[in-house]
Amino acid sequence: MKRLILFSIALTLFACYNNKKEVEMPKVSNTDYVQAIYKAFSVGDIETVLAGFTDDIQWNEAENFIYADGNPYVGKDAIVSGVFQRIGEEWEYWNLVGIKTYNVESDKVLATGRYQAKNKANGKILDAQFAHFFTLKDSLISSFQQFADTKQAAEVILVDSNQNSEE
To answer: Are strands 125-137 and 140-148 parallel, antiparallel or unpaired?
Structure first.
């Protein structure tokens, strides 16, 4: 009798195991993915930000923007040294606020918001609109194009000549 009960239990478990279907996890939307990258950037988690990029990412700052001198930045190392590191060295803080993301096509996302930053050299404040256009490939960001108020950014980094003569 024990054998019959054990056999029945084993048969039931085997039947349940074989009928088990794999559940597919829902894919994160591209807009949610880009929002997660912004969140990582906001807390200084550059490792996570970079992990969200393809190895050969093409990064373009807006024409005439203060960091456009290296356009296009190709690859993660170029972005770190040409953009992220310089932001850290030149600004007390660099915040992206009011970010809204929009799915443009199956592989493209548009983000809008504002830069709020304080320049270390002169204490001037940047409060400028931006738009970022992302292309994704295999669930990673493969290209980035910035659109921003380049005039305001350039004016903020200028040190007043009066300020220099007083020091």
So the answer is: antiparallel
- Look at residues 137, 133, 117 and name the one whose alpha carbon lies nearest to residue 125: 117
Q: Say which CATH topology domain 27-160 has.
A: Nuclear Transport Factor 2; Chain: A, (3.10.450)
The domain locations on the chain are 27-160
Asked if residues 56 and 74 have their Cβ atoms less than 8 Å apart, the reply is: yes
Q: Residue 72: which residues within 8 A CB-CB, separation 6 or more? A: 58, 59, 60
- Could you give the 3-state DSSP secondary structure of residue 142? strand
- Taking the C-alpha atoms of residue 47 and residue 38, their distance in angstroms, rounded to an integer, is 12
CA 128 to CA 144: how far, in whole Å? 18
**94-139 pLDDT tens trace:** 999 999 999 998 999 999 999 999 999 999 999 999 999 999 999 9
